[in-house]
Specification:
The chain has 441 residues and is mostly helical. It contains 21 helices and two strands.
Length: 441
């Protein structure tokens, strides 16, 4: 339950996340208003429709990510070969060459190193922005917030109520520290009241007598909005389970565990289906990603079950809905990608890359040459040019030294022989040699 409070307290103020949450909040508010217009005022139904819309918008990113995962079957062996080639080499020249060769592999297949990461990053930003909306519906849905308005106005009119609300709010299950939240604001009180459970409602009535009727009517209205297939999605499943066990209620136990269990099962199916599109990558023992993917397949569902019990059931319902939507989407994506071979995907990527590079002024001929370059020859031409330049520089320096050779030295004699063999005669060196011979005579 502490995770709920910590995440909710900080995530609203994150850069970009807050803007995404604001935008998604507008979508959620619109959905609720449309449902309300046709006589359906239910937070659970709104969450499901909201989740379907958001994940539908993310389909293009999911397809792009799956295409990259499918290409890993041909990319990974070549990248691993380059990494093995430079294994243990930490000097700057080797690291630059390694990077150059790896970039050439990605260029050959018409993709980039960031192709797999960027879609995931964007999806993560949207999911982080989604969390505050689902976690705190009244903050974004005006009609839900208005249900608390009469009670909030009454609390604010009572002297000393702010201190009482701060004390209740900093404890579990609300976990809204007064250092981070301003309890003099109506919006803060609404956010705190939305997290109230049976025990906190009772504490409020004990601390502020005279609120019984208003608290009772507010709870009834909110419970009606939160009811979904017999489950109060505003309550914590663990609390519901504890109460059901005390009463020996079989139906109560089933209702308490159904959302956390479904969250785990749907999460497992979603991960399993997403990994089905990676080809033989999961069976590759030499691939370090294979182990982490297998671990994720089992740990993620377990985490969903634990959080499903300790956080409000509304969040668990969102996880079930999102995983179910991803499963349906993944089946469609896997069917779509099954008709495309790796070669088809590579051809599409190269075509897109050609268009991008041609806009920058690079000719199609040069692009085709780059795309067909074998990784075994990557960097060979540039290295050959560099080696030839080094050789030319060494020859030039040797020639300079030879010109300044001392008379009678071995270098001077070698110069004389070289001139004689080449048919060139220079008076200065010959006269020096001749004068030296005359001196000896």
């Amino acid at each position: 339950m502490e995770i709920n409070g910590l995440l909710a307290a900080g995530i609203y103020d994150w850069p970009i996340i807050s803007q995404i949450s604001w935008l998604l909040g507008k979508v959620m508010n619109g959905i609720y208003n449309v449902l309300s217009a046709v006589g359906i005022e239910n937070i659970g139904v709104s969450i499901i429709i909201f989740t379907i819309i958001v994940y539908t918008l993310l389909i293009p990113l999911t397809i792009k990510q799956q295409k990259f995962s499918k290409m890993q079957s041909v990319l990974t062996p070549e990248i691993r070969k380059i990494q093995k080639k430079y294994e243990g080499k930490r000097d700057q020249a080797s690291m630059l060459k390694q990077q150059e060769e790896m970039n050439a592999v990605y260029d050959k297949y018409g993709t980039k190193m960031s192709s797999g990461c960027l879609p995931s990053l964007i999806q993560m930003l949207f999911l982080f922005g989604l969390y505050p909306v689902v976690q705190n519906i009244p903050r974004y849905v005006e009609k839900v917030s208005s249900v608390y308005t009469p009670l909030v106005e009454k609390i604010q009119s009572i002297s000393g109520s702010q201190a009482i609300m701060e004390k209740i709010g900093e404890a579990s299950p609300v976990l809204m520290n007064p250092d981070s939240y301003d309890y003099s604001k109506a919006s803060t009180l609404v956010e705190a009241l939305y997290k109230f459970q049976d025990s906190t409602w009772n504490t409020l009535m004990d601390q502020i007598p005279g609120l019984e009727s208003l608290v009772s009517s507010t709870r009834d209205n909110i419970d009606n909005l939160n009811q979904f297939i017999g489950i109060n999605i505003g309550a914590h499943p663990w609390n519901l389970l504890t109460e059901a066990l005390k009463d020996f209620s079989i139906i109560g136990i089933i209702l308490a565990v159904i959302i956390p269990v479904l969250a785990g099962l749907t999460q497992f199916l979603s991960v399993k289906l997403s990994q089905a599109g990676t080809g033989n990558m999961m069976d590759d023992k030499d691939n370090p990603m294979a182990g982490s993917m297998k671990t994720m397949m089992y740990t993620m569902p377990l985490i969903s079950v634990v959080f499903g019990f300790t956080l409000p059931a509304g969040l668990g319902l969102y996880w079930v809905a999102s995983a179910a939507v991803r499963c349906v989407q993944q089946l469609a994506i896997n069917k779509y990608l099954s008709k495309k071979t790796v070669e088809d995907i590579i051809a599409e990527n190269q075509k897109k890359m050609k268009k991008k590079i041609e806009k920058k002024g690079t000719s199609a001929k040069e692009i085709n040459k780059m795309a067909l370059t074998s990784t075994r020859n990557v960097g060979s031409s540039s290295n050959a040019k560099k080696d030839q330049a080094d050789k030319d520089e060494k020859i030039r320096k040797a020639q300079e030294m030879a010109k300044n050779a001392k008379p009678g030295s071995l270098t001077s004699k070698a110069n004389l022989v070289a001139r004689y063999n080449s048919g060139h005669k220079t008076e200065q060196p010959v006269s020096e040699e001749a004068s030296e011979k005359k001196g000896k005579k």
